[in-house]
Design a protein that fits this description.
3 strands, mainly alpha, Multidrug-efflux Transporter Regulator, Chain: A, Domain 2, 5 helices, three-stranded antiparallel beta sheet
Length: 126
């Protein structure tokens, strides 16, 4: 028997709102079946949600996560999916490295502005 999940099961497991899950469904990332008004999520939906949330933590856009999910092909050993994921990881690392440089420069500029401001303040109070 295949394991299924309710929207509240997934919401609790992944600590997201049911609204978030419905959003991913509306975006075509999850495809629950229905029993009347009740949504029934498959194990594949659960895995997709896990991948979406992991992608979000890694800084991937929703469209990037969707593209990665669509590349799922166990018959090929998921070679294309894994190759694409490695490219995305490399891009994200590069972006983060640049952001670190930008942050360090901003900290230097803030330090310099603070020194000038304190000197001006000190001179004004003499």
């Amino acid at each position: 028997m295949t394991k299924t999940f309710s929207i509240s099961d997934l919401s609790k497991e992944f600590d997201v709102t049911t609204r978030t899950i419905r959003f991913y469904e509306a975006e075509g990332l999850l495809a629950p079946t229905r029993d009347g008004q009740k949504r029934i999520y498959s194990d594949q939906d659960r895995v997709n949600l896990k991948l979406i949330l992991r992608g979000k933590r890694l800084g991937f856009s929703l469209s990037e996560s969707k593209a990665l999910i669509e590349l799922y092909d166990p018959a090929s050993g998921n070679a294309k999916q894994l190759s694409t994921l490695l490219e995305k990881i490399e891009q994200q690392r590069s972006l983060l490295a640049q952001q670190l440089v930008d942050i360090e420069l901003m900290q230097v500029e803030l330090d310099e502005a603070e020194i000038r401001c304190r000197e001006a303040f000190s001179n004004a109070n003499k």
